Amino acid sequence: MAKDISPAEIAANQKCDLFALIFQQIKHSPLLLNENLEMVLEDNPVSNKPEATIVKAGSFRASIRTYVAKHPVSGEIINNLPIMISSWRENSFHLKEGCETPPIEKLNNKAFENVEDSVKFFLSQIELISRENKQEV
Fold it and tell me: How far apart are CA 73 and CA 81, in angstroms?
């Protein structure tokens, strides 16, 4: 008998499956061979599989994160842009309670519909933060 899958598991798998496609394209990038970069994967708490990564270069950060695109029960598209790229500089803003939204001018966010465009932009952000970090050192 097949095990019923909860909506939370469906949503988690959806995010992680999309991230797996992204990770396949970025993990072999020569940009990530730079010894000054650190890549940290973030696991989904439901599936324990990666759904995001943050690349660190000194005080600079770039992340690529996946979100749910289809409602886990109805299958209806609820998010046309399920991939988010963010880049920022650590300590460039201070949140009073830790849960506020950072100021727009301190955080670069861009959402994407597909893997190819998001990977291309993410790699450009890695190149940018790597360059910025070299200038800072």
Answer: 19
Domain residue extents for the chain: 7-136
Q: Is 60 left (phi over 0), alpha (psi -120 to 50) or beta?
A: beta
Q: What confidence tens digit (pLDDT) does each residue in 61-94 have?
A: 999 999 999 999 999 999 999 999 999 887 655 5
66, two tokens? 């996946």
Q: How far apart are CA 110 and CA 92, in angstroms?
A: 19
**pTM for the structure as a whole:** 0.87
pLDDT, one tens digit per residue, over 4-57 is: 889 999 999 999 999 999 999 999 999 998 888 999 999 999 999 999 999 999
Task: With CA atoms as reference, report the closest residue to 12 among 39, 50, 41.
Answer: 50
Tokens of 77: 């598209």
Residue 32: CB atoms within 10 A of its CB come to 16
